[in-house]
Specification:
The chain is built from 8 helices and no strands. The protein is an all-alpha fold. Bound molecules: zinc ion (ZN).
């Protein structure tokens, strides 16, 4: 029961994330106007705005103009539901659950914006870094610590290690290939991730992300024949693995 309930809560927040994914890159307000169809402008009634179900009932088409609604809507809602359930199964209903849910949601929005626009808006990552630092300072268990200051320090080093590793990789890439390989958006994204999970898991994320590269790359290539591959989704996938299993994997690898 709890799991079904959390999946629904996750899907509902997922439909808000869809609004963010559509409006943030267009510099539109995320609170008003109310939801409308991007093709015909028709206002979407509440009963057509039920996560996942409405999409299936309407068969992915707008009620008024019958234009296709991108599959992204139902994908994001379902992913958000699963993320919520997975985090709950791992952390229970703790403060850590809510803090990491916030991070995961920010990563979901950033990834889908990056997939479409090859950019990650600062409005997601910069406030995210502050939230991570404050959360670590106020709530040491987030970093597996007992005291506030060491926890805050882990988070601060997480920002530096996360942002620094991507920056350095981009710098070296540019030097070798003579063209820009990493965007500033990726630097800030991993800096945000680091502020929530600390420097060890930030570096873990950095080294894990390339393994997801081929996966996202192949999907985009088949779907759109695209050459430039956005890196945000790789970092986000790797970060989510780090959130759930990073501690265990690091323990096994380094026997600490
Ligand atoms: Zn329409």
């Amino acid at each position: 029961m709890t799991i079904i309930f959390l999946f629904i809560i996750g899907a509902i927040t997922g439909s808000f994330m869809n609004v963010c994914i559509y409006r943030l890159p267009r510099d539109e307000s995320i609170v008003k106007p109310p939801s409308h169809c991007p093709s015909c402008g028709g206002r979407i009634p509440w009963f057509d705005n039920i996560p996942i179900l409405s999409f299936l009932i309407l068969r992915g088409k707008c009620r008024f103009c019958k234009k296709r609604i991108p599959a992204r809507y139902i994908i994001v809602e379902a992913l958000s539901g699963f993320i919520c359930v997975l985090l709950f199964l791992h952390f229970g209903l703790t403060a850590k659950f809510f803090i990491l849910w916030y991070l995961s949601s920010a990563l979901l929005v950033a990834s889908f914006i990056d997939l479409q626009f090859q950019e990650i808006p600062d409005i997601i990552t910069l406030p995210g870094i502050v939230v991570g630092l404050v959360a670590a300072g106020l709530y040491p268990p987030l970093m597996g610590r007992l005291n506030n200051f060491p926890s805050f320090l882990d988070s601060l080093l997480g920002v530096l290690a996360g942002g620094g590793s991507i920056y350095l990789a981009g710098f070296i890439g540019e030097f070798i290939f003579k063209k820009e390989s990493m965007g500033g958006g990726d630097v800030k994204l991993l800096a945000m991730i680091g502020s929530f999970i600390g420097w060890k898991l930030a570096l873990f994320t950095f080294f894990l992300a390339p393994f997801f590269g081929s996966f996202v790359g192949i999907v985009l290539k088949i779907k759109e024949g695209r050459e430039i591959i956005p890196y945000g989704p790789h970092l986000s996938l790797a970060a989510f693995v780090a959130i759930l299993y990073g501690e265990e994997i690091l323990k096994k690898l380094f026997l600490v």
